[in-house]
Every structure is written in C-alpha cells, then in structure tokens.
C-alpha cells in the first residue's frame, strides 16, 4: 500500500487519539492532527507515539477557514478523517450554540476547503482522495425494546441538540457528494469506551467516583440500553473504512453489546471489588455508592446498531467483547491515575466532571 498523508481533525480527543495511535503503530502513513484543544482535547493521550517522524500536530479551529486552507496547502492530504466535534449531550442542552458552531459550521468549513482543494488535484491524487466524516448512532433517535437494530437506511430522528447537530453535519456531507461530487464516506458509531476517555462519560465517571468514595449517579432507573464499542475496535474500523469504503457510502459501526446502563455500572463495581477491594468507610461493595438522579430531558431509551454492512463489505468485526473491553478499561484507569489527575486539574472549573452523559 502506498504511503498516504492523512489529515485528522479532533485527534487529541478520545476517539481521534485512539485512531492516531492505531495508524502510527500499524502502518507507515503520515498523520497531521489538527485540534482546537478544548477541554476534552488532551495531547497527553498521544504521548505513547513519542517523537514519530510521521506525526505532525497543529492547533487549529476547524471553523477558521483561513487556517484550514493553510493546512490543506501545506500538508496536501490524501484522506481527511473528520472527528472534531462537541459530543457531551448534557452540554448540548445547556449550551447548544457551541454544538451548532463546531459540529455544523465546522463541518461546512471543512467541506468547502476540501472541495476547493480536491478540485485542483489530478490523476490518482484526485481519484483516491476521500473525506471521511465520523458521526454517531444518535442521529437515528432511539428504539423501543422490540424494534429492529439501526441500519444505514433508518430515517433520522435526533433527540438532543448534540444529535441534531451531528445529523445536520451528516446531511451536509451527503449534499457535498451529491451536488459537487466530493468523494465522501460517513460512519455512524455506537457508544465508545476505553482508555483515555474524558471523565464526563458514564464509564470513567463510575470508575473514578467509585475509587474516590463518591456517589455513582445513574439517570432515572438506569434501564436505558446502549450498544458499547471498544474504542480500539472503532479505530480499526475507521482505518479500514477510510481506505476501502465505497465513495458515497454510509457504514454503521457497533460493538454488538446491548447493555442496560445499570448493568454497566454493576459490571464496573464487580471488577473493582475484585481488583481494588473497598477501603472506604462503611462501604463493603462499590455498588453501595450507586444513587439514582432525575432523568435527563428527552433521554433516549435504546440505541442498537446493525453492523452487518461493514462486516459483509469490509470484513470488520469487533475483537473485544464488552466483558474483556470493560476489564481492560477499568485496569487502565486504575493504572493511570496521573493522567486522570492532570485532566482534572486542567479542567478544574469544568462543571460536568462528575456528571454522566449517555
């Protein structure tokens, strides 16, 4: 395979950093990471790649057309993998304008700059160029307990400002393909988990709150169902899709793990009971820290993805089961308290550090 130059947006984030680590550890491709470094962007997540000669970082806001134009001219990418996004649902309810700006205007800016760049290419460079937009299953809305899994043909029914902004971005990407011919690919993934996840999401919140003897908050009755995807499986899927996916196609990426939120929490507590028996006063088992809080407005009941298309066309299937992935994740957080503390200090004023988002 010829060496490609891959431009990744949001590469200091949870999924973006996993993707960069995967590419640099498993290929000879060259990666340029552009990231605004908002609260959830953390370059410490990329320390393991060291001083790789195949890696370049540039602090750039994807809404800044002038800077994006400069990046394209200087780097001359073969593939754009667009992951930069605001993704915390609770924040989207409180501050929707941030999500409109980054997820919609940012995607529009990247599409315009990509189109201008692509139109000037020729030969194989033009034919092989791809714009890969990374989206979410939340654009499909939610399912009741008996409904069939989300497929790529499901209608969009977003429930929150976050999912609506991602749905809007998906529509923009498809229209740039249909109207202008820009060679695009879209992937919609289920809930990711794993190492280096910013501690605003359910799994890291539960782990960190438990080991510090804090309450473990669960929205409503905890019966909401999510399909869980280990982040390293997702990174591998993104790599395969960017290189081998069909132009204009959409691929759903799921972990094949439909689990209730309350069962996820109980699973974490059970692993912690084994690996780090409680020394918290009056707490024998970590599940005793669980508390139920008022449910989120418009909380989706169930997400579940049908990944048969990507399996059939590209041969991708997840390697990790939820049990193996969750154990790896808990162990990582227990062994990386310095990363967690540095993240906490960096975001000392971030009000959602102990809230859950699903």
Give a written overview of the molecule.
The protein has 358 residues and is an alpha/beta fold. It has a domain of 232 residues: NAD(P)-binding Rossmann-like Domain (Rossmann fold). Helices cover 42% and strands 16% of the residues. It is built from twelve helices and twelve strands. It has a seven-stranded parallel β-sheet with strand order 3-2-1-4-5-6-10, sandwiched between helices. Strand 5, helix 6 and strand 6 form a beta-alpha-beta unit. Helix 1 packs across helix 8, helix 2 packs parallel to helix 4 and helix 9 crosses helix 11.
Q: What is the fold's blueprint, element by element?
A:
Layout (H helix, E strand, L loop, with lengths): L4 E5 L4 H13 L3 E6 L19 E5 L5 H11 L3 E4 L6 H6 L1 H24 L3 H5 L2 E7 L24 H20 L3 E6 L1 E3 L8 H10 L4 E4 L5 E6 H14 L5 E4 L4 E3 H15 L14 E4 L14 H7 L7 H14 L1 H10 L12
Parallel strand pairs: 1-2, 1-4, 2-3, 4-5, 5-6, 6-10, 7-9, 8-12
Antiparallel strand pairs: 9-11
Report strand %. 15-25%
- Number of DSSP strands? 12
Question: Helicity level, as a percent range?
Answer: 40-55%
Structural class: alpha/beta
Mean pLDDT score, rounded?
A: 93
Question: What would the CATH topology of the domain at 5-190 and 229-254 and 300-319 be?
Answer: Rossmann fold
* Gyration radius over CA: 20 Å
Would you identify the CATH architecture of the domain at 5-190 and 229-254 and 300-319? 3-Layer(aba) Sandwich
The stretches of 5 or more residues where confidence is low (pLDDT under 50) are 349-358
Main sheet attributes: strand count, strand direction, barrel closure: 7 strands, parallel
Distance between the termini: 39 Å
Tally the helices: what do you get?
Answer: 12
What's the CATH H-level superfamily name of the domain at 5-190 and 229-254 and 300-319? NAD(P)-binding Rossmann-like Domain
List the helices and strands in order: EHEEHEHHHEHEEHEEHEEHEHHH
What is the CATH class designation of the domain at 5-190 and 229-254 and 300-319? Alpha Beta
Characterize the overall form: globular
Order of the strands making up the biggest sheet: 3-2-1-4-5-6-10
């Amino acid at each position: 395979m010829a060496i490609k130059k891959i431009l990744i947006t949001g590469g200091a984030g949870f999924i973006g950093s996993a993707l960069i680590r995967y590419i640099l550890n498993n290929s000879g491709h060259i990666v340029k990471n552009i990231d605004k470094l908002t609260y959830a962007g953390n370059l410490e997540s990329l320390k393991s790649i060291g001083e790789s000669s195949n890696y370049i970082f540039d602090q750039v806001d994807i809404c800044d057309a002038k800077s994006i134009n400069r990046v394209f001219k200087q780097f001359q990418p073969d593939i754009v993998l667009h992951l930069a996004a605001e993704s915390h649902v609770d924040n989207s309810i409180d501050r929707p304008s941030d999500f409109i700006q980054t997820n919609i205007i940012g995607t529009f800016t990247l599409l315009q700059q990509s189109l201008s760049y692509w139109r000037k290419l020729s030969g194989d460079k033009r034919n092989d160029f791809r714009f890969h937009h990374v989206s979410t299953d939340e654009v499909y809305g939610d399912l009741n307990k008996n409904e069939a899994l989300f497929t790529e043909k499901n209608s969009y029914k977003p429930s929150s400002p976050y999912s609506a902004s991602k749905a809007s971005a998906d529509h923009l990407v498809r229209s740039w393909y249909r109207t202008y011919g820009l060679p695009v690919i879209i992937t919609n993934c289920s809930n990711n988990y794993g190492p280096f996840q910013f501690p605003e999401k359910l799994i890291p919140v539960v782990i960190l709150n438990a080991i510090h003897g804090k309450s473990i908050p669960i929205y409503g009755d905890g019966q909401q169902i999510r399909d869980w995807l280990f982040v390293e499986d997702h990174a591998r899927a993104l790599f395969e899709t960017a290189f081998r996916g069909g132009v204009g196609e959409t691929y759903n990426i799921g972990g094949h793990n439909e689990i209730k939120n309350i069962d996820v929490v109980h699973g974490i507590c059970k692993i912690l009971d084994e690996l780090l028996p409680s020394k918290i006063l009056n707490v024998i088992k970590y599940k005793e820290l669980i508390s139920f809080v008022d449910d989120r407005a418009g909380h989706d009941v169930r997400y579940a993805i049908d990944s048969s298309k990507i399996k059939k066309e590209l041969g991708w299937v997840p390697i990790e089961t939820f049990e193996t992935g969750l154990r790896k994740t808990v162990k990582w957080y227990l062994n990386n308290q310095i990363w967690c503390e540095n993240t906490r200090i960096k975001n000392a004023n971030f009000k959602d550090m102990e809230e859950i988002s699903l």
